Amino acid sequence: MARYIGPVCKLCRREGEKLFLKGERCFTPKCAVDRRNYPPGQHGRTSQYRRNRDSDYSKQLRAKQKARRVYGVLERQFRRYYRTALKKRGITGLALLQTLESRLDNVVYRLGYADSRAQARQLVTHGHFMVNGRRTDIPSMLITPGAEIRVREGSRARTYFKDLLAVAEQKNTPSWLNRDLSNLGGSVIRQPDRSEIDGNLNEQLIVEYYSR
Question: What is the structure's pLDDT at 2?
Answer without folding.
Answer: 66
